[in-house]
Amino acid sequence: MASAAPNIASRSASADLTQRVERDRLVPLWNFFNDWFTPVPKVSAQPYLWHYDRIRPAVIESADVISAKEAERRVLVLENPGLIGKHLITDTLYAGLQLITPGEIAPAHRHSPVALRFVIEGKGGYTAVAGERTWMEPGDFVVTPSWAWHDHGHEGEGPFVWMDVLDVPLIRFLGANFTEHYPEERFPEGPPVNDSLHRYGSNMLPVGYERKALASPIFSYPYSRTREALERLKQQDEWDPHHGLKMEYIDPTTGGPAIPTISTFIQLLPQGFTTEPYRSTDGGVYCVAEGSGTVKIGEGEAAQTFEYSKRDIFAVPCWHPYSIQAKEESVIFSATDRIVQTKLGVWREQRQ
Ligand code: 1HN
Q1: Residue pLDDT, tens place only, 211-269
Q2: How many Å lie between the centroid of ligand 1 and the Cα of residue 166?
Q3: Given ligand 1 and candidates 72, 75, 181, which is best to mutate, with the most ligand atoms within 8 Å of its CB?
Q4: Residue 311 lies in a domain
Q5: Mean pLDDT value across residues 73-88
Q6: Does residue 35 lie in a domain region?
Q7: Residue 242 structural domain
Q8: Which residue has the higher pLDDT, 59 or 352?
Q9: Which of 59, 106, 178, 210 is the most buried (most CB within 10 A)?
Q10: Which of 200, 197, 267, 204 has its CA nearest to residue 233?
């Protein structure tokens, strides 16, 4: 057991040593041991919810301020109130709302962090990964693997908005962040639309398939398929008291997560269902695809309750218990760093 205060024989001698060794770039561990090694995790992120209806006008207005081309990516970043200036939604994840208007192209580039998109609104938008296009619809979950060339476009009408989530903080922390800009606006056209979904996402694999990258070869998980699966499964009352009906998006070639560094989930809660409080060490980003209700995040006096409805986004900081009460049947997407923690052997959960 770590004692509350270190047993320092002489405070003045310790302070004196601290001062003298500073010039030799030495710091006594006992000065900060208890600050670092706490019984439970210290978390900077705070519970927070963004009401889409409230922030939508600013997202739309961003098109008057800058073009997608000029901005490279025209995004309003979802910055957690506990991480001001860090531009992060949780301690380990970045998230933002990206707008693209008809005819615009967000130019091709690639970077080491992985990006995922969860489509919020619009029709006629697409992402191309290495020249292969996938048209996006609300509720679709789309992945841009590490170091894959990608550009976005919009050939429909009206605004097209999605939520981006990236593992930027993790990759920056590791010192492995590289970016490259493609010399043309768009990467040359590649395989036909949704080729990889048909090739790898139909419970078959091409004979002789060899895995080339860590990421799933599927980069589009259409909402129509996801919703159909949830609809079928819900008929059997598969309700986990803490999660309702919760599924993880996977790489069909391995059964592992769809993204090597971000775990992604979709859950359905029937009307009137309240999840039992649950916490885990993976903080996360939640986006409401359907429904409305309330979510309580945190414990004791620090607990906060937010009303949610379709398209709202909320942050659950790690090790904060949360409970969702579905007023209407709700479908909620989430992205967390669970897979990283699991691989490192430090992930914990607590069902309360
Ligand atoms: C990025 O490349 C995209 O490709 C979106 O759409 C958001 C945030 C930080 C760094 C790169 C995109 C991003 C980003």
Answers
A1: 888 889 999 999 999 999 999 999 997 899 999 999 999 999 999 999 999 999 999 99
A2: 7
A3: 75
A4: yes
A5: 98
A6: no
A7: 48-351
A8: 59
A9: 106
A10: 267
